[in-house]
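At this stage, I wrote out one protein's amino acid sequence and its backbone structure tokens, and that material follows here:
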Amino acid sequence: MKRITYFILAISAILLLNLSAQAQQANPDSLNLQDAIRAALTNQPSLDQVEAEINVAEKKVDQAKTNYYPHVNAEGNYNYINPVSSFDFNGNSLKVMPNNNYDAHVAAQQLIYDFGKTKQNIALARSKMLTVEQRREVVKWTISYYTAQTFYSILYLDRRMDVVGEQLKTLNEDLKIAQKKLKNGSATDYDVLSIKVRIGEEKNRKLDLEDRKEKLKSTLRKLFGWDTDKAVNVKGALKLKNEEPISDLTKVYTERPDYQVLQQQKKSLQQAYKLQSLTDMPMLSAGVTAGFKNGYQPDINEIIGNYSIGFQLKVPIFNGHITRYQKQEVQSNINSLNAQSRKLQRNIQEQVEQAKTDVRTGKQKLKTTDLQIKQAKEQLRLAKIRYKNGVITNTDLLAAETALTKARFEKVTTIYNILLSQYDLRKAMGEKIWASN
């Protein structure tokens, strides 16, 4: 008996596991906002492009460092010279150099001192690399908030469809009542037809909402890099966030990725200005060569080993004022970035104030929508009683139901607008929602 019981339990467990697996395949897990943002930032071509640019910038830093290392070259030369200088000695003609000249050597050139040019060049390359890395944050910032807007737009349409569903349920109940009244002679065919028309209108509204929802899902698939036939299911609620008061806009400026890019670009230009200031400084280097060649007396055709050591001092004297003009160009670019920074600061201030105003106004409207829904529910309750008692027509009843639906739509739309305004505020403040838990 126990074996049979264990066997039945085992079979039941297997069946439950299979059903669970099938359910998971049929209904894949839904995405919350953070899941959606992570999916949007994964395999994102825009980010891949920036990562490639960062890699290029890193290589330029490595290139700038190469001046600290010796540059070594292997060289080989052959020259045939004719005629060559000669002189007579004891009746013999002696050549000063051979006709066939061979020279094979290794040459090394090492920078000794350049008054900080190489160091400054490296600093400039690193600064440019940091600029590209900041641009990566701008891309994440832009994609994350666009994903959030699309995500909550889908939830908003779901809520609107819920309201339409409630309206359809109520209209179907009205239709049954009207059909009963038609049989009793207390209603007309027109009353039934009016309700059916309203049901058709609500169904069309639902179809429009579903169409808009599918388009938004297609947008998410494009952001995620998913196939067009892959299901997109989102989960969440239109939940408002208690925004924190903003007292220091200076902190907001430093948090904004786009503002940080401008500041990093300014630092790069300042590094470039310092580098241009060092252009006219001397440069001292050492050179060493070692190899084999011919042309040495007494046997000018014999190839023998040789080496040389030397130093080179290069002192710029005049370059047509190019250094001065280059410094002026860099300074003009710095002034342009300063103007862009001031303009962006004003835009940030405007965005923050506008978002705060929208949130505040939306919350005030939300209180009104609650009162409107309460009033519309009471009007509908009274209208149903009067309709059943034959005091009002079916047109009056439909008007009361329409008023309730409109009030519900207004509340959902108000919550949605407040939520978007809150995210506009968070974006204006430079909050990194992709890094949130």
Observations:
- Residues 117-184 form the longest helix (68 residues).
